Amino acid sequence: MSRQANRGTESKKMSSELFTLTYGALVTQLCKDYENDEDVNKQLDKMGYNIGVRLIEDFLARSNVGKCHDFRETADVIAKVAFKMYLGITPSITNWSPAGDEFSLILENNPLVDFVELPDNHSSLIYSNLLCGVLRGALEMVQMAVEAKFVQDTLKGDGVTEIRMRFIRRIEDNLPVGEE
Amino acid sequence: MAIFSVYVVNKAGGLIYQLDSYAPRAEAEKTFSYPLDLLLKLHDERVLVAFGQRDGIRVGHAVLAINGKDVNGKYTADGKEGSSGIEMLETDTFKLHCFQTLTGIKFVVLADPRQAGIDSLLRKIYEIYSDFALKNPFYSLEMPIRCELFDQNLKLALEVAEKAGTFGPGS
Q1: Contact A178/B129, CB-based, under 8 Å?
Q2: Per-residue pLDDT for B58 more than 70?
Q3: Are A12 and A3 in contact, with CB atoms under 8 Å apart?
Q4: What is the pLDDT of residue A177?
Q5: Confidence tier at B151 by pLDDT (50, 70, 90)
Q6: Where are the domains of chain A?
Q7: Which of A2, A119, B36, B82 is 20 to 30 A from B107 (CA-CA)?
Q8: DSSP state letters, B81-119
């Protein structure tokens, strides 16, 4: 993984193996601490949320995307710009609901789960739940309350990894000026 | 320095960062009678009137209000008052630029009217904020920014902007 070229004079490269190892160490430590898969999932979501609320500013500062006018634009930006920028992958967007408030992100490969196999005693662990938290936190900072959850996971034997995103509502309190 | 102040305002409207560096500037020749009602400062072996000091008090009030308080002949860049928030406020002694992010954080820069490149400076400040404030795990969102690295890099960015931007008489 490397930082964007307009970052500065030095381009920092970190090996993706180190990233996978770090994430793995995080998840296994959480499993030891909490012993219960559901709690680990919740913690991963919380951590992802904390990352998301900070990452959104970095994303907006560097990518120069403007305000999205509807959820479809949001989906496009998430898949084509954000995922590309931070994970180097471009998920595809499918399965739009008729009302246009739900869609799926299909990830062919997920960098977090390189080399990972889920053991039987952790069958309800959502290993990459951090990503759901990140999406939730980031979108909340731009006044969108969404729900993100994994509906398919290659770690559990499915062919692809699928994240279902559902738009709940616009967040009306603390609106920036000019958005009423 | 042609950039007088930088302020960062959070979503709730609270000031979370403030940097003031008023430039003593001799813009006009005037005769005074004793006692003086202006502050004189010795700067770079020249006696300069710190006009910035006086405007500073008014500037301080205007920024804290952010609801369109009158500052000697103000008008917004788009001609309407406060329709989508202040983006630029121009007076004859300073220009106030405001950049609002999609997340509600506002970056306010007060600069010399002749200073150019403030828009890119605002974007740069946004990047510096997203780097040194947000990526510091010990900084809590919406709280006052007390990060050394943020201060340092911000001051660096201001210096670069001033060197690149202004073509008026230097200080």
Answers
A1: no
A2: no
A3: yes
A4: 58
A5: very high
A6: 16-170
A7: A2
A8: SSSS--SEEE-SS-EEEEEE-TTS-EEEEEE-TT---HH
